[in-house]
Structure formats: C-alpha cells, structure tokens
Amino acid sequence: MNAQRLSKRLEKVASFVPEGAVVADIGSDHAYLPCYLVNKGIVDKAIAGEVVKGPYESACNEVKKEKLQNQIEVRFADGMEAISAEDGVTAVTIAGMGGPLIASILNKDLSRLETVERLILQPNIHAISIRQWAKVNGWKIVDEAILMEDDKIYEIIVLERGEEQLSEAELLMGPFLLKEKNEVFVQKWLGEIKQWQFILESVKAVMQTEPIKEKIIETNAKIQLVEEVL
Question: What sort of enzyme, by top EC class, is this (predicted)?
C-alpha cells in the first residue's frame, strides 16, 4: 500500500469522500489516504492528523515525497485537536480504530465538528458504538459498507447531520448493511453468534452472580436478534 494504491479498505473509505471536500484524516498514519485523495483530484486540500511521533514523521515524509506540501498539512495533534473552525473542514475520515475509541475522539470536543458535513468512519470492532454516538449527537447514517481484506472484516459508516430512528437490529448491525445482507455481512454475524455461544458455554461453570445472569440474558437476546435477521 502507498499513496498511489490504497488497501481495499482505505480505497472504500476514499470512495465516500465528496468531490471538492476539505478533508481531515484523523489518525492518518502514513498519510496515504489524504495523499491519494489529492493525487486523484477528489480534493484539493487536506489535513493529516497524527498523535504518535513515528507515524507523524512518516506522514510528513510521505507528503514531501508526493510533493503535496502546498495541499496537505500534517499536524501533530491528539484526535480532533488537529482541526479548528478556521480550517473549513467539510469531511472527516477516521479509520482503523475501535468503535468506542472513534466515538470518544469525536466526543472530546464536539465544537471541532462545526463546519463538518460528513463523517466517514471505519471501526475495526464494535461499530455499534458509532451508531449510538450518531443517534445521541444528531447525525444520521447515509451509507455503509462491509468488506473483507486479509481475512479481516471491516465496516464503514458514513454520517451526515440529521435525525433518524433505528431499530435494535439496525443499531447493532447497520440499516444499510441489513438491507443488502451480503456474503461478508452473513459471515460476520455467523461468527459473532459462534463467539457468543462460546461465551455462554464458558460461564456455565461460573458462579451465577447478578451481573453474570444479566450478561447471559443480554447475550441470548443478541443471538436471537441476529438469528432472526439471518
């Protein structure tokens, strides 16, 4: 993977960035995504935010190598602190982190989202945290994708401002993904059921305290919910 050729996962993230957007890639690592977006003419201006020194330096080097210093600014900053209202950022990408971490990054300073029109988020795990965050903070899901790369399954959630009502199944599994119900989606949730059933077997020998009993009920409910959908 490089600035000219992204991974399948990041290429899908890039496909959701609106043409002409001012994009900020938070946790940009090597800045491959913003470099790709500028090289392809999808955006003219981008910010790459990185909080870890090594990846920050890699991002700086990549931008220089691609000769994009006039269009991409690499910033050493924690999460959304990489941007401010003056930047006029209209799209934010956050990829390759857990859903709860992405939600916490967004929550840390909601004012940083003042000019943002679209969020393109790719949680590695617990995508439900993103949907819950969106519901509470006035964002709605406008698109989703699920794909497999290197034997790992990834979800992408695209948010824009607005309100929506999601069922329990839509919150857990994604409204767009539920409608499409492709092969990767089915594989993911069959795997989740298997894991939940393993957990239930594991706790049988454990003393049944109230928290454990509640966990058993919750897990059985999730299994039933997913089985009904599949």
Answer: transferase
User: At residue 174, what are phi and psi to the nearest 5 degrees?
Assistant: 95, 125
The predicted-structure confidence for 58-69, as pLDDT tens digits, reads as follows 999 999 999 999
Q: CB-based burial of residue 101 (10 Å sphere; 0-12 exposed, 13-18 middle, 19+ buried)?
A: middle
Over residues 121-132, the pLDDT tens digits come to: 999 999 999 999
Range of the domain at 28: 8-165
pTM above 0.85, yes or no: yes
DSSP 3-state of 131 = helix
The pLDDT value recorded for residue 1 is: 74
Question: In this structure, is residue 174 part of a structural domain?
Answer: no
User: 123 near 97, Cβ under 8 Å?
Assistant: yes
Parallel, antiparallel, or unpaired for β 152-161 and 139-149?
Answer: antiparallel
- Give CA 144 to chain center in angstroms: 10
Structure tokens of 126?
Answer: 């617990």
